[in-house]
Design goal:
The structure holds two protein chains of two kinds. By secondary structure, chain A is of the alpha/beta class. Chain A has four helices and five strands, in the order βαβαββαβα. Chain A has helices at about 25-35, 55-60, 100-110, 140-155; strands spanning about 10-15, 45-50, 65-70, 80-85, 115-125. In chain A, strand 1 (about 10-15), helix 1 (about 25-35) and strand 2 (about 45-50) form a beta-alpha-beta unit. In chain B, strand 2 (about 15-25) and strand 3 (about 25-35) form a beta hairpin. Classes of the chains: A alpha/beta, B alpha+beta. At the A-B interface, strand 2, helix 2 and helix 3 of A face helix 1 and helix 9 of B.
């Protein structure tokens, strides 16, 4: 689960998505790629799946979270936006598959009084996905690109 | 006559739409629709059966472990594997952990605000709240200072309007009946439960290697025990599990149950509303002498018809005449015609969407109107879930189950018949949590006992290699998920998955009516429910939430509009 079991996690790289739904799983594919990278000891990489409330603990513990998720916002497939949302209402409405769980989770941080600082890389995907475990040919090349953006963010953090 | 549409009705994963017809302030008919498609069966075909659990576990972020369990059981049933005792204990510990966490989260975070008015809590008197809280339980956090600080924080949240949880309620609705002080206690425990649930799930990470999607294994569990070894599951980690279980027992006994009983006391009218179907089905779970011996499960297996608690019918998942799925009102087609019912071993997953294009005002309920198939047991619609589990146990005279149920009935001064209701369903969830957290401790103690005698085995390699399997075989993994009876059916041919069908709890409860017009559990439970305000159908939400709806595994996970909470349209 963690790269650094005994040290305090400073940054959590969290990929969200459902790998059974093709491009919707892009966040998980990005963290799978990053699991192979050499990262500082206090950086943790987590495949969050669609884990909703179960992600509260690792996110809260980190203080700084880099989130990668898919969005269906009508933009060209594979475009990436970098957002720094504070409240659940600041997140794209179409952050999908698990958006209600994730937004409830983000509200929960405020209720508990310890909101982590979140940077969100939202990757645009086409609407209407078939059940499929692979990424589409449009999205496959985006994985190293987003992984690179995440690494830059980690270095700057 | 008006038609009220609530879409989506779930607070978490999944997509459920309910259309209710209201006449003279009461619901006279209702339609439940899963609005998104599922197709996991298609992904699994042709794969190695030993990998299936990892895919099925991904259908949901909430109850991941139960799908993995049903999957490995289905494969073990097909190729005839009996897992070692320690593996059974670890699986039971994972199961109990999942239930305790999920039920507490459901009660406080997905259901409590249907009964607790957050805005009313703002005007509670902290002194009085503290006095009442002390009469409810021995829980330490009951000072007036604690409640007064909490009230200040709560005020900020409500005023900011930025927190969906508190912004989207029907606050001030006449169906809210709790005193202000109980409302404040409810909100306090909403927050405490949020903190607590983070701890208990650590048990999954310890035995399953990781969370939110822990590891499972056909033939056992992927745990390596070595009491001295740093990288294994050692004494230190097992002690942590012991502490987490102790804390969970305290939380359930001192917070969840007292709150449940206090709230229930003010809503006894709901013991006569929302009963719905009269048939209950439970596959049973928590084996104590192996999966092949359901008579020794903590939750007994069986079916009840027509609320007759003097008779419990046997249930056989392998009998092709017992469980069948129909699609008369579902967006699928069967090769032999849409009126046919298919046992899951012969199940087909061929989509046939004939519904209206969104956005639309209402579904064409005369025809197909849901992505959920309609499962039936011997052609009867059945309710599944905590209430079904407790009723089957109660009717079978199970000592532990009878004891907690009778104690609660006595305390609330209501008869057994009160269980057949919205309140009964919500209470059953709490009552079984009391039992499950005790059983969690029992299984843990037994595991520790085994390990101390040097019994470390967690996996049987005997049938691991596909060469040892028959050329063709079939299995069923019967289990219970927090929301009810869950089963996976598998057919294996030439060592690959030939067919895989999951019939999940929300398919039983939330499915559309069958070809004979018999409603399923959600639809039936809404009949005769009073609705005070058509544009704020709190009563519909209460009853549907009492089932703990979660359609992620019952349907596809995708929502093109990214809608947040109950959108209500009145036509």
């Amino acid at each position: 689960m963690t790269k650094s079991k005994n040290k305090k996690t400073r940054v959590l790289i969290l990929g969200i998505g459902n790998v059974l739904m093709g491009d919707e799983g892009i966040g998980v594919h990005v963290v799978k790629a990053l699991e192979k990278a050499v990262l500082p000891d206090d950086v943790e990489v987590l495949d969050g799946g669609t884990g909703s409330f179960l992600l509260l603990e690792p996110m809260q513990k980190a203080g700084r979270v880099i989130l990668v998720d898919a969005t269906i916002d009508g933009a060209e497939a594979g475009s990436v936006s970098r957002l720094q949302p504070r409240f659940s209402t600041d997140y794209p409405k179409t952050l999908t598959a698990h958006d209600i769980g994730l937004k409830d989770l983000l509200d929960a941080f405020y209720l508990l009084g310890e909101p982590p600082e979140v940077t969100l890389f939202a990757v645009s995907i086409p609407p209407l996905q078939d059940m499929e475990t692979e990424l589409s040919s449009e999205l496959r090349p985006v994985v190293p690109k987003v992984a690179g953006l995440v690494l830059d963010e980690v270095m700057a953090a | 006559m008006t038609r009220v549409v609530v879409d989506p009705i779930t607070r978490i994963e999944g997509h459920l739409r309910v259309e209710a017809v209201i006449e003279g302030g009461k619901i006279t008919d209702a339609y439940s629709s899963g609005t998104m498609v599922r197709g996991i069966e298609k992904i699994l075909k042709g794969r190695d059966p030993r990998d299936a659990w990892a895919f099925t576990e991904r259908v949901c972020g909430v109850c991941t472990t139960v799908h993995a369990l049903a999957s490995v059981r289905a494969v073990e049933d097909a190729i005839d594997i009996t897992v070692p005792k320690n593996a059974e204990l670890v699986r039971n510990i994972m199961f109990c952990t999942q239930f305790v966490q999920d039920h507490v989260v459901h009660f406080y975070h997905l259901h409590a605000l249907d009964w607790v008015d957050v805005v009313s809590a703002l005007s509670a008197d902290p002194e009085e709240t503290s006095r009442i809280a002390k009469t409810l339980s021995n829980w330490p956090k009951t000072s007036s200072g604690y409640f007064s600080d909490l009230q200040k924080r709560l005020k900020t949240f409500v005023e900011s309007g930025q927190l969906g949880i508190f912004a989207n309620g029907y606050w001030g609705h006449p169906a809210y009946k709790l005193p202000k002080e109980i409302n404040l206690i409810g909100v306090a425990h909403y927050l405490e439960a949020l903190e607590w649930q983070k701890e208990i799930v650590k048990i999954h990470a310890i035995f399953g290697g990781k969370n939110p999607h822990p590891n499972y294994l056909v033939g056992g569990v992927p745990c390596s025990f070595n009491l001295e070894e740093v990288n294994a599951i050692n004494t230190e980690k097992l002690n942590l599990v012991g502490r987490l279980i102790k804390d969970a027992m305290a939380f359930v006994e001192q917070v969840y149950i007292p709150d449940l009983m206090a709230i229930a006391g003010f809503y006894k009218d709901w013991a006569a509303i929302g009963g719905g179907l009269k048939n209950y089905l439970c596959y049973g779970d928590l084996p104590t002498k192996g999966y092949e011996f359901p008579d020794h499960f903590k939750f007994p297996r069986g079916a009840i018809l027509d609320r007759d608690l003097t008779k419990v019918y046997d249930v056989n998942g392998r009998d092709e005449n017992e469980i069948k799925e129909y699609i008369a009102h579902s967006w699928y087609k069967y090769a032999d015609g849409d009126q046919t019912g298919l046992h899951p071993w012969k199940g087909e997953t061929e989509f046939n969407f004939t519904g209206p294009k969104p956005p639309f005002e209402q579904l064409n309920v005369e025809s197909k109107y849901s992505w959920l198939k309609t499962p039936r047991w011997k052609d009867n619609p059945m309710e599944v879930g905590p209430l079904a589990r407790l009723l089957v146990g109660y009717a079978k005279d199970n000592k532990e189950i009878k004891e907690v149920v009778d104690e609660a009935l006595t305390k609330l001064e209501v008869p057994v018949a009160a269980l057949f209701s919205t309140l009964g369903r919500t209470a059953a969830r709490g009552l079984e949590t009391r039992l499950i957290v005790r059983w969690l401790k029992e299984f843990y103690d037994e595991l520790i006992g085994n390990l101390k005698t040097g019994e470390m085995s967690t996996f049987t390699r005997e049938k691991w290699e596909p060469e040892t399997w028959p050329a063709e075989c079939e299995g069923v993994g019967l289990s219970e998920a927090p929301r009810g009876a869950l089963a996976h059916w598998i057919r294996i041919k030439d060592r690959k998955i030939e067919n895989y069908q999951m019939v999940v709890p929300s398919t039983w409860n939330a499915s559309p009516r069958d070809g004979k017009g018999q409603r399923s559990a959600y639809e039936e439970s809404l009949i005769d429910t009073p609705v005070a305000r058509e544009n704020e159908p709190l009563e519909i939400i209460r009853t549907i939430h009492s089932f703990d709806p979660c359609l992620a595994c019952a349907v596809h996970l995708y929502d093109p509009d990214g809608k947040t909470l109950h959108q209500v349209t009145v036509n």
